Every structure is written in structure tokens, then in C-alpha cells.
UniProtKB/TrEMBL annotation:
Entry-linked Gene3D superfamilies: 3.30.70.260, Dihydrodipicolinate Reductase, domain 2, NAD(P)-binding Rossmann-like Domain
Active site: K206 (proton donor)
GO terms of molecular function: homoserine dehydrogenase activity; NADP binding
Function recorded in the entry: Catalyzes the conversion of L-aspartate-beta-semialdehyde (L-Asa) to L-homoserine (L-Hse), the third step in the biosynthesis of threonine and methionine from aspartate.
Species name: Microbacterium protaetiae
Entry keyword annotation includes Oxidoreductase: yes
Pfam family, one: Homoserine_dh
Cofactor: a metal cation
Protein name per UniProt: Homoserine dehydrogenase
Signal peptide: none
């Protein structure tokens, strides 16, 4: 039996993820010691309520409500409480005392990451956060270490399991969003208040973290353009399927050339529901799974796929970080800080260039198609495809448009500037021949 050096581990939080981390630390203590070169001694677990029901039965003597005292003298602090305060305060306390920290807290990193990384740099400690993006999927380390010698050009990811579950079931079963959301809550995928997921806040936090790593730039959360999925209807899903697409909530982190104000390069970071071609690997990401598609200059296309959430799955990512932190602690030397040397500007959504699909309800009479094409042409939006179908439901008698009948136009565009596109859609919406702009969706992953 090897007499390993002992490292004191403080765990903050014993919820879905924390309770599984505690279980694995205790059950696999010998193996983890062999892999990290140190005995990982779980000194205590901070919780809010000592008597709260837990997924895993944990030794009562390890539980405490005094996180501050637990942190004192710890070598590694694992934060799995979530939220901003007091998680931020505890992580700063841990770092200032020289402990390495491991966290899965994307909300905290996306809003206070710079402060936390600075504190780590001051003392040469490490901050590891593999669990913060896409649960069990290794994506932070690949971006930070494996691709450190390459240039990442673009990331398109499905990074929120709840919205993927909802959109996937809408696509596969033709169900309405409200019914599926209720199921997602019952199954524990979505929060009781699902706003963070369906409005894209969770995905935006993850996108900010991915873009910061990929482009060696601090990307504040405010710089991420965010749209949720609440506007996606069954009708839009059906239309997407008919056209060979599926609607997915995506996070896009993109390097742009020739569009920065002060430099030649800039970045765009955005989350929204978008059309993905059915042949694209991201189209076959089902249920609560996540996937991150990375395009790098030398490596080409890489895809990372797996469980984006779940207590035990996410615990795997946390423990990987704990083993690395323990190895660093044993080896000595400073932790590797975050690289922000590129400091690229972030462009506004209006400067993004992508393809779009515009669905309109229009009058079905001579000259309408030419009128619509003229408005698109004036707005510098080039048409790639057009499909017209006649609407089944006629309007009211006496209404000119209704007498003429209605048609549905689905227009696929070539790449266009978002600003041009949105001005053009506004002009279409105001025009007499257009009864209704049904939807405007971006096409990603080409
Ligand atoms: P839970 O809500 O299930 O658990 C939170 C835990 O933190 C609870 O044990 C709670 O104590 C404890 N806690 C909260 N506030 C305090 C406080 N002020 N002092 C002491 N303890 C406190 O969260 P999850 O396990 O789901 O998530 C943890 C982190 O991991 C979050 O940052 C989340 O974003 C991230 N994450 C979660 C994933 C998932 O699938 N769940 C996936 C990827 C990341 P008590 O039990 O007494 O209430
Ligand atoms: N609410 C998140 C999701 C949990 O649905 O993906 C994992 O971060």
C-alpha cells in the first residue's frame, strides 16, 4: 500500500451533482489516489440544510452548514452550490488561501470569471470548470489544452439539454411546446422556473465560456446575443422538416475577419433557435444530450457528444478536474491561467453574416412574387430558394386579399448581413402584399 500524501478536499454543495461527487470520492478513494498521486480526503460537505433529503446517503458527520470554516486549510475546494453569492465569496476565499478550485458554476464564471481567474493568478492556484459547459462532455480541456496550438474558427454547439429535449420531441412527435415543457419539469430536466433554459440564459453563459477559451478573449455575458425558444411553434417545426431541416437551439461562437473596429479580427457569440440541415451531425443530437461542433484551422471539424446534464454524469467531469488539480498540487508550480491575450472585439448581431429562411403569408395574385423579390433585392438580400404553397383557410368575403386567396412563401436566402436582413423583413412586414411574416430563422452549420 503506497503511503500517499493527503490532500484535504472541501465540497460545497450536495445536490444532484455534489452528492454524486461525494459518493464517488468515498467509494473510489483508492483508485483516485493511484491516479492523482495523493490521497483525496473528503474533509466535509457544506450544505444549507443538514436534514434535506439527498439522492445519495452521505455520512452525517461530513455535513456542515459552515462553509467558511470548512474551506480553511483545504487544498482543493469543489464548488457545486450554484448561483452567484455566496459561491463567489467562497471561491475567492479558497483561492486567496492558495487552494485550487473546481466548479461547475457557469452562471458565476460567465459573470465573474475575470475576477476569479485574476484571484487564482495572484496566488498561482488553478481554476478548473469542465462541468460548467455540456455536463459530462470533455470540451473545456480540449479547447484549453488539446487545441492550444491550433486556431479555432467556429463553434456550433447544442449546450442546453432542456431546450434540446423540448425541440427534439416537438420534431419527432409533432407535439406542442407547452405539453413537453410540463414533461421536462416532471422528469427533472427543466427547473421549476424554466426561464433560464427556454429563454437561452443558460446557453448564453456556456457560450460566453466557450468563446472566451476558443478565442483567448474575455467575453462578457452582455456581449452574447440571446434569443430563446418560446417563439418556436409546431407549425415552424413542420415547415422545417418539410424543407429538410430541424430546429435546434444553438450556441455559435465565430471568428470574423475584416470586421473588428480596431483590429482585423473580431468575434460573434450568439444563441438562438436555428435551422440545421438534417444531414449535419448536430441534427441527430436527441433528447437531453449535448454536442459541440468545433472547426479549427489545422484540426478541421471535431465533434464532442454526450450527456449535457445529470448528477452522476456531471460528477465525472468534476472528478477529472479534481484529479488534475491534485496532480498539480503534488507537482507544485503555478496553475495555468486563462489566456486572454487576443482580446478580440465582439461584434453586434447586426454585423453577423448567415443564411436565413423567411416564411411569409402573402396575397395570391399577379405581381406579388415580383414585389417580394424586389424588396429583398433592394435590401441586398439574395434569394437562394423559393417555395410557394396555397393556404387552406380563405379569409373573409369582401376582403380583396381574401378574394385573391392567400399563399405561403418560404424563401431561403444566400448569406446576408443580419442588419440588411432585419431591415428587409421590416419592409416586407409593412408592405400591402404581405399578410404576415410567419417566421424568420437563421440557418447554421452549413
Ligand atoms: P442543486 O441545486 O441540486 O444543489 C445545490 C447544493 O448546494 C445543495 O446541496 C444545497 O444545499 C447547496 N447550497 C446551496 N446554497 C448553499 C449555501 N448558501 N451554503 C451551503 N450550501 C448551499 O444543484 P446541482 O447539483 O444541480 O448543480 C450544482 C452546480 O453544478 C451548479 O452550478 C450547476 O449549474 C452545475 N451543473 C449542474 C448540472 C446538472 O445536471 N445538475 C450539469 C452541469 C453543471 P441543500 O442540499 O442543503 O439545499
Ligand atoms: N439546465 C441545464 C440544461 C443543466 O438543461 O442543459 C446543465 O447545465
Amino acid at each position: 500500500m503506497i503511503d500517499y500524501r493527503r490532500l484535504r478536499i472541501a465540497l460545497l454543495g450536495a445536490g444532484s451533482v455534489g452528492s454524486q461527487v461525494a459518493r464517488l470520492l468515498l467509494e473510489h478513494a483508492d483508485e483516485l489516489a493511484d491516479r492523482s498521486g495523493a490521497a483525496l480526503e473528503l474533509a466535509g460537505i457544506a450544505v444549507r440544510d443538514l436534514d434535506a433529503p439527498r439522492d445519495v446517503e452521505l455520512p452525517r458527520e461530513l455535513l456542515t452548514t459552515d462553509a467558511e470554516t470548512l474551506i480553511v486549510g483545504s487544498d482543493i475546494v469543489i464548488e457545486l452550490m450554484g448561483g452567484i453569492e455566496p459561491a463567489r465569496e467562497y471561491l475567492l476565499q479558497a483561492l486567496n488561501s492558495g487552494a485550487d478550485v473546481v466548479t461547475g458554476n457557469k452562471a458565476l464564471l460567465a459573470t465573474h470569471g475575470a475576477e476569479i481567474f485574476d484571484a487564482a493568478d495572484q496566488v498561482g492556484a488553478s481554476v478548473s470548470y469542465e462541468a460548467a459547459v455540456a455536463g459530462a462532455i470533455p470540451i473545456i480541456r480540449p479547447l484549453r489544452d488539446s487545441l492550444a496550438g491550433d486556431r479555432v474558427d467556429r463553434i456550433v454547439g447544442i449546450v442546453n439539454g432542456t431546450t434540446n429535449y423540448i425541440l427534439d420531441r416537438m420534431d419527432v412527435e409533432g407535439a406542442e411546446m407547452a405539453d413537453i415543457l410540463a414533461d421536462a419539469q416532471r422528469l427533472g430536466y427543466a427547473e421549476a422556473d424554466p426561464t433560464g433554459d427556454v429563454e437561452g440564459h443558460d446557453a448564453a453563459q456556456k457560450a460566453a465560456i466557450l468563446a472566451s477559451l476558443a478565442f483567448h478573449t474575455t467575453v462578457p455575458l452582455e456581449a452574447v446575443h440571446r434569443e430563446g425558444i418560446t417563439g418556436v411553434t409546431k407549425q415552424m417545426m413542420d415547415a422545417a422538416r418539410h424543407a429538410g431541416y430541424v430546429i435546434k437551439m444553438v450556441a455559435v461562437c465565430e471568428r470574423l475577419t475584416g470586421r473588428g473596429e480596431a483590429s482585423d479580427e473580431a468575434i460573434s457569440v450568439r444563441v438562438y433557435p436555428a435551422l440545421i440541415r438534417r444531414e449535419h451531425p448536430l441534427a441527430s443530437v436527441h433528447g437531453v444530450n449535448n454536442a459541440v461542433f468545433v472547426q479549427a484551422e489545422a484540426a478541421g471539424n471535431l465533434m464532442f457528444y454526450g450527456a449535457g446534464a445529470g448528477g452522476v454524469q456531471t460528477a465525472s467531469a468534476v472528478l477529472g478536474d479534481v484529479v488534475s488539480a491534485a496532480r498539480r498540487h503534488i507537482a507544485g508550480g503555478a496553475g495555468v491561467g486563462e489566456s486572454t491575450r487576443a482580446n478580440l472585439p465582439t461584434v453586434d448581431i447586426g454585423q453577423v453574416v448567415t443564411r436565413y429562411q423567411i416564411t411569409l403569408e402573402v396575397d395570391d395574385r399577379p405581381g406579388v412574387l415580383a414585389r417580394v423579390a424586389g424588396i429583398l433585392s433592394d435590401g441586398r438580400v439574395s434569394i437562394a430558394t423559393v417555395e410557394q404553397t396555397l393556404e387552406q383557410t380563405p379569409g373573409q368575403p369582401g376582403d380583396d386579399a381574401a378574394e385573391a386567396g392567400s399563399a405561403r412563401l418560404v424563401i431561403g436566402t444566400h448569406k446576408a448581413l443580419e442588419q440588411d436582413l432585419s431591415e428587409t423583413v421590416a419592409r416586407l412586414a409593412d408592405d400591402d402584399v404581405v399578410e404576415r411574416v410567419v417566421s424568420v430563422l437563421r440557418v447554421e452549420g452549413d
